[in-house]
């Protein structure tokens, strides 16, 4: 007990920070302290409840709440009851009001959840008002934190736990309806907000709070006797007077009031007569029931529930409910988000609760409540009117949205079919079926350019399809008219409604009726019918429907399609035939309808089971007749297009021709009676490539000439697309109906295949095609034509020449290299791109089985590789081997699997190479080529993410700042190899796509300084190797090049420039090779940046650093010139510094506003160094710095127009010196080789890196100077 008293004393008299440490120590201590947990919990509660709690730091508060959370998990319910006091709940409430500013949110909420879940129910019942206040604050926090997902989840779990506590209390002691109104009033606004604005992509916690909110509302208003009261109030609305009588009926009522009721009833009856009502005893008596007279009033007055005089309180419940709703609406009128935007969610929640709690047979009351709420949303139907409406200020779209919520709640109960067959009150004006019919008709009069309108129609159709049947044509018209609108969710809702309609008609076996309604809906539209009016999703659904059509529906739908197209085509042909004497009536343009229906017909014909073996003979005959009618229709449409010279009419005619041809080929193959009746023409002579008369006799040559002329003028390329399909169809027909031994077959097939191939547009494009014919355009035609070719390639490949296949493979590589982006305007998920089509084709069985195509693909890959890497194949090229993907590809192309005949040369795709196609090694070679080409595509694709090198961290650690490098031991060969490997790896890092991220995390100046220090110290011997020196320069060059691009990275070079200037201006001597190389690389990159157009954010930094380095290298150059005889390295540095100083002087002078060349622009030391360079260049002996001399002279010569005094030596002498040095250098290299049989040629003299320098030099020469140089060269060669 002494320990307990001591702990209590320490906690009471110490600071909060000290007490927290003591609590944690006591909880971890194994020493037994009596009532330790109770003492600690009591101290925590006092601390939280005290006024000093607001002064706690975030860490202290988090520690306190975390400790309490851990203690509550082990506490018993009676112990928790001690904690839950009004003051403690009030403290939690204050903490919640501080969200989300506090950091211990998770501990707070989890502690609160554990407390309310563990507390005894009796205790919580006593603390119910405090719990409800806590719930109100939690819901408000949920509303304010909807954009913070993690915090919202914790808040939703806490709100759900608090609501469950309140619901449990109500289950034991249900509250009255008036008390429920009082409980809900402060909570309803936030509850409905959470329900309305957090629906899509919600987490499990949010979904749970949605369910709990509905359960909370249902439990408060509908438990036990409450549901009986609500049903009594709803039952009252099924009577004759119902909502029209706000006062009770009494015997002493004046006759005038009765007469008014009679007149209103008669008006309602006259409107009901116009509706079609199904036969039934109750419906037949409706006309007589509503004739109210005095005797009926006496009967109504004699009813038991009327004898009390006035209506009971529960008979006014609906009015009280709307009064409560209006009060909540007024109280929240000042909020930022108008309550009317989300508060009506309460209607659907309440309706859902009444339907679920109503266990009686009175299902009509549920419909009454639906009508009541719909009326208050603005849906005023004659079957339900008269009550005062709460003004919510809803827009038309919001009214429809909340109405759809009500309808969905009602539809989920599936009660409509039961309600309409139940006995109804004969004296009631409210009939559920009549009200639904009026509602569907009412919707047709409302604004339909919102997604909510289509959602409502779809929900009503799911409730009962016959409700929408009477207005189906109007509904379809509105579906077509909104095609061009781009409102959010509108087209998706429209598509969903159309799919629902199709599903319903399919289930009812009334697809022909739907097709007829679609045709009727195309007339009298307020907007022109667009080719894409019918969505692709509807056509996909329609295609699935056509697969399962019965023979009767199939032939009937086919007949409708042919007749309608024939009717509209005939109407189009008579449009221009009106008399000139009589004033012609305004003729409707049927062409848009024909275009849309042609697409429907195409979808229908490609998916029907025209050769179903179970088809009765009667329908087989009918199909044959329909084929004949379809052929005649196609001919008539083609004649009309030629007559009008209309490309759009031609598209439709060609579409019908193609449809007929596809069905004809299928029927000939699989329908014996049809095939025997068809007599295919004989191939007596080679057919013209474009001739289609073999399969379509009515498609004569003259008509084809007209089509070809239209094709050339058609910008949409639809005519070309259909002609390609018809030519491919002709090839199939020739193969099917012509004997293989026919001497004219091969030439005809080759001509047709070449014609199809010639119309493929091989233009690289990023367009996307959604696979809809109506969306073909000139920009998408390269994708469409490639798709047509590759889909039918197995049919065309045997008849295509090798050059066409090779050209196609070259096009494949061009597309894979450049066609990576997508069309932003196309959002189709099933879109087709050129790159996607090619990738699918290369992995398809068609490509694997086509040996010619594989050979051509090898040819294309080898050709591209030879172009890109031809420099690496030259024997005198000293560059390193390719790494990464390049190495993988080269290994695949020249690895262990070889193609013996074509291992050293580019393979030629011709028919003679077929002799090797049986070799197993050849197949392996094709597999290797395919793998290499994938790597190759990754290399040539600029945006490819796969082009990365494997970076070993340990290889570059010694280059990073702060790394300690061991200086013990000599630099062995293995160490040199390790340095080379590290440098290679670092180069790969700087050349990979990740290079732009490097200097954002590592200081560029410090990194270069560390790198120079590493190579200046124990790695200095590595720079004696020329290849290592080149790698070192390339690393520095890449780092500086990346650093000068951005402001935040270029500033890091300031420290490096200062350090470099101090090193090169020191009087102790010349800088080391590592520093000298770094300074020259840094100065060169800065001068190059000055040549470019600098951005304002980096311009000042680069100019200051370049000026500082210019002063430093000037001092360095001065010391070099006074050294006497210079070594090769020092001479190279001297000439390079002089060149950079000249370039910097010209760049800095260009940035001056006047731009004139000053006389003192170049220093005496710079001119002296240039004189040394020109003098050494003219020496007859080979110079060991010839490369540097040539570069300096060529670049200085390029500046002669701005500063002629830089080169005092005549240009012919310089040209002769350049040629002499190159020739001497090439001769020396040839003598070093073991076999010296080669001769000195121009190719041997001038390497790749000298081409551009020589080009610069010759461009700077005048015509006379060029003549002198050529004269010297000719004399030297002779």
Automatic annotation (TrEMBL):
Biased composition (Acidic residues): 254-264
Segments of skewed composition (Basic and acidic residues): 270-279
Region called Disordered, residue ranges: 251-285
Protein known as: Uncharacterized protein
Biological source species: Amblyomma americanum
Upper classification of the organism: Eukaryota, Metazoa, Ecdysozoa, Arthropoda, Chelicerata
């Amino acid at each position: 007990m002494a320990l307990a008293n001591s702990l209590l004393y320490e906690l009471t008299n110490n600071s909060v920070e000290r007490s927290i440490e003591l609590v944690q120590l006591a909880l971890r201590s194994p020493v037994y302290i009596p009532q330790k947990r109770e003492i600690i919990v009591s101290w925590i509660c006092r601390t939280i409840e005290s006024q000093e709690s607001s002064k706690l730091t975030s860490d202290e508060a988090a520690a306190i709440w975390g400790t309490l959370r851990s203690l509550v998990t082990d506490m018993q319910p009676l112990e928790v009851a001690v904690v839950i006091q009004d003051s403690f709940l009030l403290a939690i409430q204050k903490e919640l009001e501080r969200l989300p500013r506090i950091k211990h949110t998770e501990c707070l909420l989890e502690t609160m959840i554990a407390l309310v879940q563990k507390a005894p129910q009796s205790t919580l019942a006593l603390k119910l008002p405090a719990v409800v206040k806590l719930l109100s604050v939690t819901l408000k926090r949920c509303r304010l934190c909807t954009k913070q997902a993690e915090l919202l989840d914790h808040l939703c779990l806490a709100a759900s736990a608090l609501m469950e506590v309140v619901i449990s209390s109500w289950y034991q002691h249900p509250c009255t309806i008036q008390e429920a109104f009082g409980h809900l009033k402060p909570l309803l606004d936030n509850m409905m907000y959470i329900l309305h604005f957090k629906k899509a992509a919600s987490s499990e916690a949010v979904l749970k709070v949605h369910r709990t909110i509905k359960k909370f509302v249902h439990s408060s208003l509908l438990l036990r006797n409450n549901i009986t009261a609500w049903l009594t109030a709803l039952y009252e609305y099924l009577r004759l007077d119902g909502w029209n009588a706000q006062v009770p009926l009494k015997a002493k009522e004046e006759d005038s009031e009765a007469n008014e009721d009679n007149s209103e009833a008669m008006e309602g009856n006259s409107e009901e007569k116009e509706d079609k009502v199904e036969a039934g005893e109750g419906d037949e008596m409706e006309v007589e029931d509503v004739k109210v007279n005095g005797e009926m009033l006496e009967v109504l007055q004699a009813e038991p529930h009327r004898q009390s005089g006035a209506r009971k309180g529960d008979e006014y419940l609906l009015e009280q409910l709307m009064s409560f709703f209006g009060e909540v609406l007024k109280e929240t009128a000042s909020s930022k988000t108008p309550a009317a935007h989300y508060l009506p969610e309460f209607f659907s929640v309440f309706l859902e609760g009444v339907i679920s709690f109503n266990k009686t047979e009175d299902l009509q009351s549920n419909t009454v409540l639906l009508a009541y709420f719909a009326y208050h949303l603005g849906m005023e139907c004659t079957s339900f009117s008269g009550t005062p409406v709460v003004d919510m200020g809803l827009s038309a779209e919001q009214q429809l949205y909340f109405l759809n919520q009500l309808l969905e709640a009602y539809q989920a109960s599936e009660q409509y079919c039961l309600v309409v067959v139940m006995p109804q009150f004969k004296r009631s004006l409210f009939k559920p079926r009549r009200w639904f019919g009026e509602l569907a008709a009412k919707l047709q009069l409302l604004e339909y350019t919102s997604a909510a309108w289509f959602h409502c129609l779809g929900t009503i159709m799911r409730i009962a399809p016959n409700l929408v049947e009477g207005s189906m044509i109007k509904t379809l018209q509105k579906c077509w008219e909104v095609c061009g609108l781009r409102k959010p969710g509108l087209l998706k809702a429209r598509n969903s409604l159309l799919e629902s309609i199709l599903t319903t008609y399919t289930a009812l076996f009334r697809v022909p009726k739907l097709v007829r309604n679609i045709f009727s809906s195309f007339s009298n539209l307020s907007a022109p019918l667009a080719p894409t009016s019918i969505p692709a999703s509807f056509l996909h659904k329609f295609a699935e429907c056509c697969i399962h059509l019965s023979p009767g529906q199939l032939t009937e739908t086919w007949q409708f399609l042919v007749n309608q197209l024939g009717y509209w085509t005939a109407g189009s042909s008579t449009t221009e035939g009106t008399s000139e004497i009589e004033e012609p009536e305004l003729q409707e343009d049927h062409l848009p309808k024909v275009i849309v229906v042609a697409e429907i017909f195409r979808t229908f014909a490609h998916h029907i089971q025209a050769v179903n073996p179970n088809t009765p003979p009667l329908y087989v005959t009918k199909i044959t007749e329909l084929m004949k009618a379809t052929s005649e229709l196609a001919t008539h449409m083609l004649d009309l297009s030629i007559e009008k010279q209309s490309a759009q009419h031609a598209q439709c005619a060609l579409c019908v021709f193609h449809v007929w041809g596809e069905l004809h080929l299928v029927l000939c193959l699989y329908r014996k009676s049809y095939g025997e009746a068809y007599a295919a023409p004989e191939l007596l002579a080679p057919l013209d490539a474009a001739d289609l008369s073999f399969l379509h006799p009515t498609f004569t040559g003259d008509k084809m000439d007209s089509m070809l002329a239209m094709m050339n003028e058609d910008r949409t390329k639809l005519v070309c697309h259909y002609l390609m399909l018809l030519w491919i169809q002709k090839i199939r027909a020739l193969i099917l109906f012509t004997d293989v031994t026919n001497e004219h077959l091969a030439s005809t097939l080759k001509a047709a295949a070449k014609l199809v191939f010639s119309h493929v547009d091989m233009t690289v494009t990023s367009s996307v095609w959604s696979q809809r014919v109506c969306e073909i355009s000139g920009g998408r035609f390269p994708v469409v034509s490639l798709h047509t070719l590759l889909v039918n390639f197995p049919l065309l490949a045997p008849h295509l020449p090798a050059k066409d296949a090779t050209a196609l493979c070259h096009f494949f590589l061009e597309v894979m290299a450049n066609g990576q982006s997508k069309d932003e305007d196309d959002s189709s998920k099933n879109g087709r791109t050129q790159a996607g089509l090619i990738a699918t084709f290369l992995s398809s069985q068609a490509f694997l089985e086509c040996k010619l195509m594989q050979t051509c693909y090898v040819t294309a890959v080898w050709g591209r590789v030879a172009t890109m890497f031809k420099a690496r194949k030259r024997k005198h090229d000293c560059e390193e081997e390719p790494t990464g993907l390049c190495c993988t590809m080269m290994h695949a192309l020249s690895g262990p699997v070889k193609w013996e005949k074509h291992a050293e040369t580019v393979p030629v795709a011709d028919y003679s190479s077929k002799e090797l196609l049986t070799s197993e090694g050849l197949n392996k070679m094709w597999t290797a080529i395919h793998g290499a080409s994938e790597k190759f595509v990754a290399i040539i694709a600029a945006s490819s993410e796969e082009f990365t090198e494997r970076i070993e961290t340990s290889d570059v650690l010694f280059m990073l700042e702060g790394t300690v490098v061991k200086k013990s031991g000599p630099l062995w060969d293995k160490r040199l190899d390790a340095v080379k490997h590290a440098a290679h790896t670092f180069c790969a890092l700087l050349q990979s796509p990740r290079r732009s991220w490097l200097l954002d995390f590592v200081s560029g100046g410090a990194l270069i300084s560390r790198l120079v220090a590493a190579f200046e110290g124990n790695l200095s011997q590595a720079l004696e190797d020329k290849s290592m020196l080149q790698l070192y320069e390339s690393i520095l060059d890449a780092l500086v090049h990346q650093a000068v691009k951005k402001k935040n990275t270029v500033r890091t070079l300031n420290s490096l420039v200062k350090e470099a200037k101090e090193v090169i201006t020191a009087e102790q001597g010349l800088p080391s090779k590592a520093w000298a190389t770094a300074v020259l690389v840094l100065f060169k990159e800065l001068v190059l940046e000055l040549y470019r157009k600098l951005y304002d954010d980096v311009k000042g930094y680069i100019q200051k650093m370049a000026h500082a380095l210019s002063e430093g290298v000037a001092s360095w150059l001065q010391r070099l010139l006074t050294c006497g005889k210079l070594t090769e390295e020092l001479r190279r540095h001297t000439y390079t510094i002089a060149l950079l100083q000249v370039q910097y002087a010209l760049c800095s002078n260009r940035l001056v506003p006047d731009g004139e060349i000053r006389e003192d622009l170049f220093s005496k030391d710079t001119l002296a160094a240039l004189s040394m360079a020109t003098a050494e260049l003219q020496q007859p002996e080979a110079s060991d710095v010839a490369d540097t001399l040539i570069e300096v002279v060529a670049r200085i010569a390029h500046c002669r127009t701005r500063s002629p005094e830089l080169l005092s030596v005549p240009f012919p002498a310089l040209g002769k010196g350049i040629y002499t040095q190159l020739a001497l250098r090439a001769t020396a290299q040839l003598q070093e080789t073991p076999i010296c049989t080669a001769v000195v040629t121009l190719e041997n003299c001038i390497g790749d890196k000298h081409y551009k320098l020589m080009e610069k030099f010759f461009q700077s020469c005048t015509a006379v100077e060029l003549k002198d140089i050529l004269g010297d060269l000719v004399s030297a060669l002779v």
